[in-house]
Write a structure and sequence with these properties.
CATH topology of the largest domain in chain A: Rna Polymerase Sigma Factor, Chain: A
Number of helices of chain A: 8
Largest sheet of chain A: none
CATH architecture of chain B: Sandwich
CATH class of chain B: Mainly Beta
Strand content of chain B: 15-25%
CATH architecture of the largest domain in chain A: Orthogonal Bundle
Number of helices of chain B: 5
Strand content of chain A: under 5%
Oligomer: heterodimer
Low-confidence stretches of chain A: 1-7, 106-112
Number of domains of chain B: 1
Shape of chain B: elongated
Largest interface: A-B, 88 and 62 residues
Structural class of chain B: alpha+beta
Mean pLDDT of chain B: 81
Distance between the termini of chain B: 37 Å
Radius of gyration of chain B: 20 Å
Helix content of chain A: 55-70%
Number of domains of chain A: 2
Number of strands of chain B: 11
Bound molecules: zinc ion
Number of strands of chain A: 0
Chain lengths: 194, 210
């Protein structure tokens, strides 16, 4: 793979550490990942669905997420995703499970976790490489109103509808801001756009 | 290759993790069949990863790292994935460990069998099996219903659907679905909006909903 096609050049370090964990169960590498990612995951998990979780519950989820980084590291493939993307999807799936447990009407056991491992595209497109490479830069170029809605949709667990109500905007405006933002980030949704 | 996909906002909310669970299940099952949507979600996931890095970090409490480090040796090694039912999307394997034929199908009508996966007062998640050539009488919808085709084909006034196709029906649609003549059709069906809902199969299934 040529240098300019690597996902997010600044993040090679995290990919390498994840590979150390995968190959050698390297605790020092894991400790470094923990120091960088645990505080980000805490910030991410702090705003689940507009509920205010107490500090202890958030940290319990952070712990669960980091343990699953340790356990699932052998599944990580740097050709497919930046380390931050992989850790994000793991934690997002935990969050889905957590919300599902909270929303259950009966106290029923949920033995299985939300698992989408085999749904990933085996073919890594050139387009994805390009997108990964430019993502951090293009995020900084986003107009503030577009970045705001994108952050809310992704990081605050809010639907387009929730964001529309919170910002007192028409739903169509929120949808078009998200769509414009994703276009600028080079996300290709052409096959589902009318 | 599927021809009917979830709308772009659903793919975004799927990647953002904010889509309600049953809808996320339907989208996830569609992804199993649809390379175009998988590639889109891969890109949308990458956006999530980049946004995660934009958050202001929140310090974790002093003991957390030590306590996680102390647990590492007890974490079981990742089990090797068993692929007993390769045609079944991963998200459905908890209910369909061995393939569709071994399930306990309940007869609803001569041409229609059902396995309930989850049900509460707002939502019903089920598998449906329509016999070859089986036809469901014309009906409309009062709520939202999602159907994802898992195997076989069915058609209605609006189109013809095959593996992985993602079909959203709301109150404005009226249709009479019919399985193809040569094989049965198995679908994942998600009906939302409580007992008043009549879905793809809802008119017939509703009396049994209780
Ligand atoms: Zn699709």
């Amino acid at each position: 793979m040529s240098e300019e096609l690597s996902p997010s050049p600044g993040h090679e370090k995290w990919s390498a550490l994840l590979e150390q964990v995968a190959l050698h169960r390297d605790k020092r590498a894991f400790a470094e990942l923990f120091e960088h990612f645990a505080p980000l995951l805490k910030a991410y998990l702090f705003s689940i669905g507009g509920r205010s979780l107490n500090d202890a519950s958030v940290e319990e989820l952070v712990q669960e997420a980091m343990l699953s980084v340790w356990r699932k590291a052998p599944l990580y493939d740097r050709k497919k995703a930046a380390a931050s993307t992989w850790i994000y999807t793991l934690t997002r799936n935990l969050r889905i499970d957590w919300l599902r447990r909270q929303n259950r009407q009966e106290a029923e056991e949920l033995p299985d976790e939300w698992e989408d491992a085999d749904e990933h595209e085996p073919v890594v497109s050139l387009h994805l490489h390009k997108l990964n490479h430019e993502l951090n830069h293009s995020l900084k170029q986003l107009p503030i109103d577009q970045k705001e809605v994108l952050m809310k949709v992704y990081m605050e667990d809010k639907s387009h509808q929730d964001v529309a109500m919170e910002l007192n905007l028409p739903l169509g405006t929120v949808k078009s801001r998200v769509r414009l933002a994703l276009q600028k980030l080079k996300v290709n949704l052409s096959h589902v756009e009318l | 290759m599927s021809h009917f996909h979830p709308q772009p906002e659903w793919l975004t909310e799927y990647a953002a993790g904010s889509l309600d669970w049953p809808m996320a299940l339907a989208v996830g099952v569609h992804l199993h069949y649809c390379p175009a949507c998988r590639q889109a979600v891969q890109q949308l996931d990458a956006v999530g990863g980049a946004l995660l890095e934009e958050l202001t970090p929140m310090a974790v409490s002093a003991g957390l790292k030590a306590s996680v480090m102390a647990m590492l040796d007890d974490v079981p090694v990742l089990p090797v994935q068993k692929t007993k039912a390769p045609d079944v999307p991963a998200l459905l394997k908890r209910w369909v460990p061995q393939g569709y034929t071994d399930l306990r199908w309940r007869r609803v009508l001569p041409v229609l069998h059902e396995v309930m996966l989850e049900k509460n007062r707002d939502i019903k998640v089920a598998l449906h099996r329509i016999a070859p050539g089986g036809k469901i009488s014309s009906h409309t919808h009062t709520g939202q219903e999602i159907t994802v085709v898992l195997s076989g084909h069915f058609s209605d006034e609006l189109g013809m659907y095959a593996d992985g196709d993602f079909i959203l029906r709301t109150g404005e649609h009226q249709h009479s679905p019919r399985a193809s003549q040569n094989e049965e059709c198995i679908c994942l069906t998600i009906v939302q909006g409580g007992l008043k809902v009549s879905g793809l199969l809802g008119v017939l299934v509703n009396p049994f909903l209780r």
